[in-house]
Amino acid sequence: MNFFNNVKNASVSICKYIKNTDLIYSKEFSNISKNEVWFKLENKQVTGSFKVRGALNKLLSLSNEQKEKGIITASTGNHGLAVAYASEKLGISCEIFVPHSASVSKIKKIKKFGAKIIYFGYDCLESENHARKVSIHKKMVYVSPYNDEYVLCGQGTIANELINQIDKLDVIIIAVGGGGLIGGVSKYLKSIWPNIHVIGCSPENSAIMIHSIHSGRILDLESKITISDGTAGGLEQNSITFPICCEFIDEKILVKEDEIKSAMRLYYEHEKQIIEGAAGVAVATLLKVKNDFFGKKIGIILCGGNIDSNIFHSIVN
Questions:
Q1: What is the pLDDT of residues 251-302, one digit of tens each?
Q2: Max CA-CA distance within the chain?
Q3: How far is residue 219's CA from residue 307's CA, in Å, rounded to a whole number?
Q4: How many distinct helices (H) and strands (E) make up the chain?
Q5: Using CA atoms, how far apart are residues 311 and 36, in angstroms rounded to an integer?
Q6: C-alpha angle with apex 299: 12 to 255, nearest 5 degrees?
Q7: What are the C-alpha distances in Å from 112 to residues 40, 47, 269?
């Protein structure tokens, strides 16, 4: 079966466990940008992030024997939360490796679903590499945050929803980390709307995928601290998302930390919703490229809303 059909099947498989999130028109951001701006509210998803789509699709694909052994993953927060939620729903035990830099508020949420948390390393790539080794040793399935066909198709279900919510989009803006979200969404959308302009965006402090695309190979680069922890960290060698991102991302934008925070404040001011740093990256990118388009239908995926309340209020205030 092809990717398009796999995404359609994933939409059916996971639908009873997730929200079909709203696509809302923003009068304020449309006025600011002189375009027609629409936000896809994955910040309102059941776990506060799009990640639950890929996690559920992966876990639903497992055999009974694999489910009985349990699963292992690694995450800075949102993916771990998604896997913990999916595991609880499906009755599967899970171990989640997280770097010591992981968000405290996200870790608390993960623990509520009964997942076992194991700290390792100071970067999400360190945690991922170690978790893979442990999964091989224990002969348990490793659930990648992005480097997995089922996860990729799960994230692509956002695109399947989008085509049923609006007649077309001219441009879509998506934050880029490991490439699972933008890879799944852009590959699906381009099969329906081949002329859609896909903008991938990352914080300047951690833009491994974007720098790798420019170099034509996956780079091993250091990540600096960023408010966009959901997109931070390294990229696995031979990741299936890399060639997809190379093919389907039309434009790549980097934003500074103050631009991200300013965008988060502006979104909260106008839309009265909390978004996390990774979603702020996408909003900041709209503000950065707004003069490049006029009268276009622009979609922005707000990938998550999980952020420590104290940190968010310090940004807003």
A1: 999 999 999 999 999 999 999 999 999 999 999 999 999 999 999 999 999 9
A2: 55
A3: 28
A4: 14, 10
A5: 31
A6: 120
A7: 27, 12, 31
